[in-house]
Amino acid sequence: MLDRKVKEIKEIITDHFKLKFRDDSTEDIQPFDGQPRPLLNCITQKEVRDSINKLNNGRAPGTYNICNQYIKYAPPMLDKQIAQILNKTFESHEPLRISDGLLVTLPKPGKAKGPPSNLRPTTLLTSLRKILSTIELSCIRPKIEVYLPTSQSRFRPNRSTSDVIWAHRWLTAKVQKDANLEINVTGIDTSAAFDTINRKELLTILKEIVEENELHIIQFLLSETTLDVKVYPRNSLYHQHRNTTRGQSKPRSFHNLFVICSKRYQECAEQLTAASSLYAL
């Protein structure tokens, strides 16, 4: 009886998040393009070690049940082997299943128990994917930072929501000081923003910003991603090719880039600017 109940819960949660994280009208991204060839700048052992050192201890393991500590405190020989594995993957187009994630759900605080919409999804990724993602992020971050406007605070180093709060407080203080001044502040709710990224469009945007070597790695990371919904001892696998999902640091940075470049965002920004000009003094 318990086994049947667990199975039903698993199916309900899987169907709910499958609608959010998968779009059948979107074309799948292939991990490689063209003929097999080595990376222009191969991944070095030092890059692997620097990335491993950034892994946090005590985090739940991903699909392969390998904790970060096992890799972080392993002999230096492991760094060399990981670099060789990653380089060989791109050199020979050999498949490397590092994009399989475990999706676990946590109840949202203050929400009623039961509806799957009141569950917060969290993705547990493999350590090897985290290593490759961190290496790539270190390479492309300076280029993306230059591309993004200074007004963008989310998912950026040394920036946070505090920037937006202080800007709002400064505007409020300015109005309080001048009785004849009126300022209208308009905000955009980006809830579920992780669910709206089109990976094909994202790669098109990145072609104008990053180098070919970096684009190959990004395409590999965005391809063949799967989420394995875990409920008690049971899993339910489905392919994901729509969003970036919480827990993936590099795609969070891509979210900034995608939003800034999205045509829908540009149209919305123009409408908000026009509306603000009518009311702001």
Protein described:
- With 281 residues, this protein is of the alpha+beta class.
- It is built from 10 helices and 4 strands.
- The protein has helices spanning 2-21, 45-53, 68-72, 77-92, 127-147, 161-177, 199-206, 212-222, 249-261, 263-279; strands spanning 100-107, 119-124, 226-231, 234-239.
- The chain has a 4-stranded mixed β-sheet with strand order 2-1-3-4, covered by helices on one side.
The total count of strands amounts to 4
Main β sheet profile: 4 strands, mixed
Question: Strand content of the residues, in percent?
Answer: 5-15%
The geometry reads as globular
Number of helices: 10
Distance between the termini: 66 Å
What is the chain-wise order of helices and strands? HHHHEEHHHHEEHH
User: Which stretches are poorly predicted, pLDDT < 50 over at least 5 residues?
Assistant: 271-281
Strand order of the largest sheet: 2-1-3-4
Helical content stands at: 40-55%
Integer-rounded radius of gyration: 22 Å
Global structural class: alpha+beta
Mean of residue pLDDT? 80
Pfam family, one: RVT_1
Protein name: RNA-directed DNA polymerase from mobile element jockey-like
InterPro entries: RdDP_mobile_element (IPR052560), RT_dom (IPR000477)
GO molecular function: RNA-directed DNA polymerase activity
Topology:
Blueprint: H1 2-21, H2 45-53, H3 68-72, H4 77-92, E1 100-107, E2 119-124, H5 127-147, H6 161-177, H7 199-206, H8 212-222, E3 226-231, E4 234-239, H9 249-261, H10 263-279
Parallel strand pairs: 1-3
Antiparallel strand pairs: 1-2, 3-4
Domain Reverse transcriptase: 107-228
Pfam family, one: RVT_1
InterPro entries: RdDP_mobile_element, RT_dom
